[in-house]
């Protein structure tokens, strides 16, 4: 006899109740299919996607103007437009996203949209609502930190390029955020949920992989791997929670996009992964202090989102998941 928190997946049962998780047993789901679709986006983004940026860097090197800051080129010091470099840095994510879109159905024999929320219509209001909430909290946090330590922040840009980067960020960042959420909180979390037959382990596993994916970010080099990894893992967990409770990644996509848009437009540091002509420059970063700020902001975000959507079934964060047939089969 199973407990009341156990979910049985069959076409007429659980799939209707929780389509986001149930979608993972549809089609073909052998392990090698997950490997191919997890690796291919990175191969595409780091080969074809890297060509335009590689050309710009090569030309700068030929001219003798290429300057590095840590492991990354310093685009501004190298005479490369920050707006141009921003576009070239985000472009690979668009190709990575497209690779998932085009390969999902041929590999798994299920629709791409099942990754988002199990296949129901995309809930655009959730994307915009979570984005607005995150932007407001981020704006408030930046205001308080500047007020508390004004000497650590300087006006970095008030030219028309600020409007250009704002436009570019609003247009392009959603593709970058959507790719990461579709891959980690969507595709992989669905797969690990069926593989582990529970819900909390996939949240932890995908958040850890998400953190490790950012190992090559300049922040890791500047502040240390073990200082920054917990922050990325925490970031992943913050987005995994509403994904499980809400049965879809729309809230995660909105908040993730809002976070990266806000940082691209309003705040930059010398160690930022995306170098932009943002409004403010933070002179000195204090990673653990900022981690505490991230945690406080994230808990406030989750509290507001909980209040808005009023989820009642908290067992979606820990309940066992049982299948009546083997879900990871050839």
What structural class do helix, strand and pairing data support? mainly alpha
| Helix content, binned percent | 55-70%
pLDDT averaged over residues: 91
* Count of separate structural domains: 1
Strand segment count: 7
Question: Which spans have pLDDT < 50 for at least 5 consecutive residues?
Answer: 1-16, 326-330
Q: Please outline the major beta sheet.
A: 3 strands, mixed
Radius of gyration: 21 Å
Strand order of the largest sheet: 4-6-5
Q: Name the overall outline.
A: globular
H/I helix tally: 13
Strand % is 5-15%
Order of helices and strands: EHHHHEEHHHEHHHHHEEHE
Distance between the termini: 29 Å
Question: How would you summarize what this structure contains?
Answer:
With 330 residues, the protein is mainly alpha-helical.
Please provide a written account of the structure:
The protein has one domain. The protein is mostly helical and 330 residues long. The longest helix has 36 residues, at 161-196. It has helices at 14-17, 19-22, 31-46, 51-63, 82-108, 114-117, 124-148, 161-196, 200-213, 218-223, 225-246, 250-266, 287-309; strands at residues 7-9, 68-69, 72-73, 153-155, 267-268, 280-282, 321-323.
Give structural attributes.
5% strand; 3-stranded mixed β-sheet; mainly alpha; 330 residues; two-stranded parallel sheet; single chain
Helices and strands in order, then pairings?
Elements: E1 7-9, H1 14-17, H2 19-22, H3 31-46, H4 51-63, E2 68-69, E3 72-73, H5 82-108, H6 114-117, H7 124-148, E4 153-155, H8 161-196, H9 200-213, H10 218-223, H11 225-246, H12 250-266, E5 267-268, E6 280-282, H13 287-309, E7 321-323
